[in-house]
Write a structure and sequence with these properties.
Blueprint lengths: L6 E5 L2 E5 L4 H14 L2 E4 L10 H15 L5 E3 L2 E2 L6 H9 L6 E3 L19 H9 L4 E3 L13 H16 L5 E3 L5 H9 L4 E5 L12 E2 L1 E2 L12 H12 L5 E3 L27 H11 L6 H12 L8 E5 L3 E2 L3 E3 L4 E3 L6 E2 L2 E4 L1
Parallel strand pairs: 2-3, 3-4, 5-6, 6-7, 7-8, 8-9, 9-12
Antiparallel strand pairs: 1-13, 10-11, 13-18, 14-17, 15-16
Helix pairs in contact: 3-4, 6-7
Length: about 350
């Protein structure tokens, strides 16, 4: 039984969806990822989005240099937009400067104003992705003032995603940070090559943790967390060993000034400092520790046709207090579950 397990050794995990940002924030948050993950997909929604293969190479080279680890790899997707240089895009895909492409609906999340509101504009790029077996990574929300923020995922799946699937039946697709029972069930039932990343905060929080009187800025993310039935469904699929679901933290750091004392709260939760430990706790609660390695270290690599990592990490049942903040002299980032007791700890890698 899981309650008797106090130590685990698993293949070193990958984070298939993370925001590492840039400049001082990158310097501050990168060590948390390098410590516990062998590979990551770093999102391209920087202040100046990555829409050129030279920019993608420059960003990935910078991350690797700062990581200072011969065993760490980073992948950067192309930021889809309405003015794609298809020649540059195709070179970037074929030469592996881009790890597929990321679809942000316009104004759906942080730095998404350059995103897409007309799918037909990106169909030539999707054709290139399909021809090269390169993935389309989707922030799956339909943004419309008539649609509740809690229903955006369903509306995107029922409308935009269905149109994509009709035209590109062999396109490899990942719905990032799946957040609803409806979405997870769709991924599970689909006959297309489609999978999804699952964050720990979507398996730990419901909308009561965010919208209970005043908005809790440190639990505010996009897509927003939803109802308990959605949380339960995400746990079921993630912890089952189902090959269509794998780890992607969507860890998204913001300096405190963008989260507190503002009417324009930046969406994002910084989970990297406790990611592996809290995924472990969730799998323990679901009596599924035997599936933790499958979810965190195997499913994603298999879906992306990448080799499994050769190194392992060791996790032990050890109580420790997660610091309130990740900070230096210039930046202060609130840690998810900061100040709380964590029951597992990565002790070596």
């Amino acid at each position: 039984m899981n309650e008797k397990i106090n130590k685990l050794s698993i293949i070193k995990p990958d984070d298939w969806h993370i925001h590492l940002r840039e400049n001082e924030v990158l310097n501050l948050v990168l060590p948390h990822t390098v410590k516990n993950f062998a590979r990551c997909i770093a999102m391209p929604n920087l202040n100046k989005p990555i829409i050129d293969y030279s920019a993608a190479k420059k960003y990935s080279d910078l991350i690797i240099k700062k990581a200072n680890s011969k065993n760490f790899r980073v992948f950067v997707p192309y930021y889809l937009n309405h003015n794609i240089d298809l020649k540059n895009f195709e070179i970037g895909i074929k030469q592996n400067y881009f790890f597929g492409a990321k679809l942000y609906p316009s104004n759906s999340t942080t730095n998404s104003k350059f995103g897409v509101n007309n799918l037909e504009k990106i169909y030539p790029a999707l054709e290139i992705l399909q021809e090269n077996n390169s993935p389309l990574l989707i922030h799956a929300e339909k943004v419309d003032e008539k649609i509740s923020i809690f229903d955006r995922e369903k509306y995107f799946i029922d409308n935009e995603l269905q149109e994509i699937l009709k035209r590109f039946q062999n396109l490899k697709i990942v719905i990032e940070h799946i957040s609803s029972e409806y979405g997870a069930q769709f991924v599970n039932d689909s006959s297309h090559p489609i999978a999804s990343t699952v964050t720990l905060h979507h398996m730990l929080l419901t909308k009561k943790d965010v919208f209970n009187g005043d908005t809790n800025p440190h639990h505010y993310c996009m897509p927003v967390v939803k109802n308990e039935k959605d949380l339960i469904a995400l746990r079921k699929f993630a912890c089952s060993g189902n090959k269509k679901f794998f780890l992607g933290t969507d860890s998204a750091p913001h300096d405190l000034k963008y989260k507190e004392g503002t009417n324009n709260i930046k969406a994002g939760i910084y989970t990297s400092p406790i990611a592996i430990e809290m995924y472990t706790s969730i799998f323990e609660e679901e009596n599924s520790l035997n599936n933790l390695e499958t979810f965190s270290s195997i499913n994603g690599a298999n879906f992306y046709d990448l080799p499994l990592n050769s190194h392992k990490i060791n996790i032990e049942k050890v109580n420790w207090i997660n610091p309130d903040f990740t900070e230096d002299s210039k930046i202060k980032i609130k840690n998810f579950m900061g100040g709380q007791k964590i029951k597992w700890k990565v002790v070596s890698n």
